[in-house]
Design brief:
single chain; 216 residues; alpha+beta; four-stranded antiparallel beta sheet; 29% strand; elongated; Emp24-like; Transmembrane emp24 domain-containing protein p24delta7; transmembrane helix
Amino acid sequence: MMMWRLRMLDSILIWVIIVLSPLVDAMRFELISGTSKCIAEDIKHDAMTVGKYSLVNPNDGYPLPDNHKVTVRVTSPYGNNYHFMDHVESGTFAFTASEGGDYMACFWAADHKPPLNLSIDFDWKSGVAAKDWSKIAKKGQIEVMEIELQKLFDIITSIHDEMFYLREREEEMQELNRATNSKMATFTVLSLLICLSVAGLQVWHLKSFFEKKKLI
C-alpha cells in the first residue's frame, strides 16, 4: 500500500509539472516525404483537447513551397476519426474526448523526388491546459486574481480526477493479478494431477509387465 501511494504521488507530481510547464505544450519534429509519423496523447474521458499544427517555411520571406503539404488524421483509441485534413499547410482541431485512452495524431507527406525534409510545429493541449484563459478574461472582464484562482481550482480538480483515475487503474491491475494468480493455481493443480496420473499409469504398466514375465 505504501509503495502504491508513493507511485501515485510521483505520478501526480509529474502530471502537475506537465500541466504547469508551458514548454511541454508545443513541439517541432521532422517528417521526410513519403513517410508518416504519429504522436500519441493520453486523454481522459470527457476531457477537452485542442491541437494546432503548421509547416515551417524553410525560406523566410518567401511563400511556402507548393510541395510542402501534409495529410493529418486524429483518431481515438478505438479508431474513430476526430479530425482529417488532406494536403494542407496548417490546421487546428478541437473536441471533447468520448473515449478514454491514447489518441493518435498522424502526419503523412506525399512522396517526392528528391526526398523533402519537412519541419512541423505541433501544439496539443488537453484538460486544463486546453482552456484559453486570455479569452475568458477578456470576455468576462474578470480580475487577474480571480483568473488565477480559477486556474488553481481547475488544476486541483484535475489532480483530484487524476487520483481517482490512478486508483481505478490500480484496482484494474489488482484484479488482473488476482485473475492471473487464480489461473496459475488452477494450472498448477492440473499439472500436478496429470503428473500423478502419468506416474500411476507407469507403475501399473510396469506391474503388469513384471506379472506377465512372472518376475513378481
